[in-house]
From TrEMBL:
E.C. no: 3.2.1.15
Pfam family for this entry, one: Glyco_hydro_28
Class of the enzyme per the UniProt entry, highest EC level: hydrolase
GO molecular function, one term: polygalacturonase activity
Highest classification ranks of the organism: Eukaryota, Viridiplantae, Streptophyta, Embryophyta, Tracheophyta
Keyword tags: Cell wall, Cell wall biogenesis/degradation, Glycosidase, Hydrolase, Repeat, Secreted, Signal
Location of the active site: 234
InterPro entries: Glyco_hydro_28, Pectin_lyas_fold, Pectin_lyase_fold/virulence
Catalytic activity: (1,4-alpha-D-galacturonosyl)n+m + H2O = (1,4-alpha-D-galacturonosyl)n + (1,4-alpha-D-galacturonosyl)m
Descriptive protein name: endo-polygalacturonase
PROSITE patterns linked: POLYGALACTURONASE (PS00502)
Amino acid sequence: MDSVSWGSAHVNKVIVNVDGFGAVGDGVSDDTQAFVNAWNKACSTDRSVLLVPQGRRYLVNATRFRGPCSDKFVIQIEGTIVAPDEPKSWDPKNQRNWLSFYNLTKVYFQGNGVIDGSGSKWWAASCKKNKTNPCRGAPTALTIDLSSAVRVKGLTIQNSQQMNFVISRSNSVRVIDVKVSSPEDSPNTDGIHITDSTTVLVQNCKIGTGDDCISIVNGSSNIKMKNIYCGPGHGISIGSLGKDNSTGIVEKIVLDKAFLRGATNGLRIKTWQGGSGYVRSVRYQDVRMEDVSNPIIIDQFYCDSPTSCQNQTSAVEISQIMYRNITGTSRSQKAMKFACSDSVPCTHIVLNNINLQKSDGTVETYCNSAAGFGYGYIQPSAECLSSSDKDATIIPNKEADFIQSTEHLIHTEL
């Protein structure tokens, strides 16, 4: 362990190199214990940097790295961390996690390294790939759980067994310049999944997966996404929410500047029948679509099940959703779809400057039990939105309310 200058001439950092604890880095030898030992040392040492050196592949089994650690602890990943590729050898106690980080505060994950989940055999065993396979959960490549003031910058997360990157039960998390990559046909490989978390910023990220590029689910609020590239994948989704008659709450969400290419959905909110709770105060702006199947979609009849879902009257309430400056091309005729519950309609949907086209035909808007209004240029027309407040004189006030409800999203500087 050497005390060296790291990033500043005035701040000495203690470098804890996993190689110094016996890590081999040949992609074959099991380096799990070396990583655990290095973690324990670095976590308890002030001004420490846990270093995963470049140019090597470290095979690491399912591990939960626990905090609390010393403040401003840095995990510097320059090499590749690779998971075992054989599902049968996986520890059943860690069936849903691979690299899990728990109870951390003021911690920085950074570097140009790669976290590789070696997921191909997991995908082949999925019931979504082959209906004769049993439906089982698979690990998440990287999990940050029950943590605060965490920054993740520059890393590549790829080929996850299931979800690539999960942020759960956490607050004040910044994800910057991260790349997430899994094949388009890999099942349930969400790029960045945010659950039960608040004050999260996802910025300058490029995501291509076999499921949602970003998914935001129950208990999440004050989430801002900016400069996002998505494709392939299932779009940028809120939900699903309300499964098995559960309560789902998501609010204060902003997507500012995104480009989606070749995705099966664009901006999606999905809820199951029978749920309760609400989605509200959501703003999508400055989004470009290219060859996206469902550019704008609210679906309160979501049913990801091998059998048909039973009709139910209760639903997750959806309101105060703004779409502004959304342009591009749709693969499907229904470029905008608002499929809402008859008993719990969608309300206060606002459209401003929408221009969605289809290269080989016309597009349309579908509405069911959806209320709102549009102003500016709206293509396709959204006259199917029912509303009693289309008076142009109140539109500026309505917009101001939407902007004010989401403009205050402030994220902890790390």
